[in-house]
Write a structure and sequence with these properties.
Blueprint (H helix, E strand, L loop, with lengths): L2 E8 L5 H15 L5 E7 L6 H10 L3 E4 L1 H7 L8 H7 L4 H10 L4 E8 L5 E8 L5
Helix pairs in contact: 1-2, 3-5
Length: 132
């Protein structure tokens, strides 16, 4: 069974609208309506109010990813931001969280996209078989 994992990254000032915007765009761009979907975020952002509201509206399950897991997935990401590397130790938080949660054999199907207000990002990874 395939699983589409939407990785999210966002700044502290991101709103539910910004997070929801990139989440919806990533799902739409992946164009996999019959595939199980999951949101992945780095564990230290799980309590963000905008995230909680966006997740509630999406009705998708959430999986948290450790910073270590995110950094292990960094070698497989497509996007590199110098600012994010300095702050988080990975080139793209959303790509790294998507790939970390999707597992070692996952592939990136939607590279990083940025919200209109530039406060939130999303990417999608696809895994085949059973969930890791």
């Amino acid at each position: 069974m395939s699983r589409l994992v939407i990785g999210l990254g966002f700044r502290e000032q991101a709103t539910a609208q910004s997070i929801g915007e990139v989440l919806a765009r990533a799902v739409a761009q992946a164009a996999m309506p019959d595939t199980a979907k999951l949101i992945a975020i780095v564990e230290d952002k799980a309590g963000h109010p905008g995230l909680i509201e966006a997740v509630r509206a999406s009705r998708l399950p959430v999986e948290t990813v450790t910073v270590d897991a995110m950094q292990r997935a960094d070698a497989r990401i497509a996007t590199r931001s110098e600012r994010v590397i300095r702050q988080r130790g990975v080139g793209s938080v959303c790509e790294a969280t998507a790939l970390a949660a999707a597992g070692p054999s996952a592939r990136l199907v939607v590279p990083r996209m940025v919200s209109a207000d530039r406060t939130a990002t999303a990417a999608a990874a696809l895994t085949e078989g059973t969930a890791p």
